[in-house]
Amino acid sequence: MPDDPRPPYVASAAAASAPPIVVPPAMPRPVRDRTGLAIGLMCLVSFIFGMQDLFSRILGEAYPPVLVVMIRYWVFALFVTALVARQPGGLRRAIRTKRPLTQIARGVILALEVVVMVEAFVRLGLIETHAVFAVAPLFVAALSGPVLGEHVGWRRWTAIGVGFCGILVILNPGGGVLTVDAILPLVAALMFALYGLLTRHVSRDDPAIVSFFWTGIAGAAAITLIGIWEWQWLAPRDWFWMAGLCICGMTSHYLMIRSYEMAEASVLQPFAYTQLVWVSIIGVVVFAEVLRPNVVIGAAIVVAAGIFTLLRQRWKAAREGSAANPPAARDR
Fold this sequence. Notes:
The protein is mostly helical. It has helices at residues 35-62, 65-85, 90-95, 100-124, 126-133, 136-148, 154-171, 184-202, 208-227, 236-262, 265-268, 275-287, 293-324, 327-330.
């Protein structure tokens, strides 16, 4: 299967700590191309996701991360149900999937990935967690061959290698600061990549609304089976943080949907990396995190490699599309 210029997931840190919107390969091009406004919305979404991570860390320091994620997913499941119910076919259409086991696996993997991310926020901080997690698109490219049977050329393999060199710069294994905790965002990135690849797989048979519904419902059910054993009532003031967390989640997803209606996903995805800027500001100002030079340099390497991979995928898909549909055929 050729590379798709419109990956069905948000391959960025923005989606890591919140269930991302599904953007399937079969989704039609925007009726009105308002790229400038769409880019502005994506940058705003990245800021809101940064605020969401702020609330996640505050709550994750006071309560078990699995409890925080469970409550988030309850609200997210309600949001998904309400949104899907308003679509053509409603809930009855969304429930019908040709790949139920894969859809369930997607939801479970994403829910567990969010738990790992919140744990990483608490142990490592926002800056280092997001810097390492930015490797997720490279994991997607590396695994697209064995998982989906796609061809990955030498240029993208080179970018993948360069990106992982950036991870080594961030983790600084020779500096005596590499710990088991530092592996958490790397594990989260791998889980998110698997989620994205499974999403691309099911998109061949299920429409976007079906995958979106199963992401919320399967994830909420799975995380409840684990998180309910950690149940405790939040302190009155902490419900304020939880409300902010849930509001940010719903707002960001709505704005993300709107942005994808206005412009191509391949155009918007590089701007999702602006979340690294927001979380760096939040980490330094709110949590007194230190912006170490090796983290800045390593993150720049990883982001550059990730953007190259996304652009290369887009160029390759456009070239294959042109070859399959020559000008003579298009003019008829």
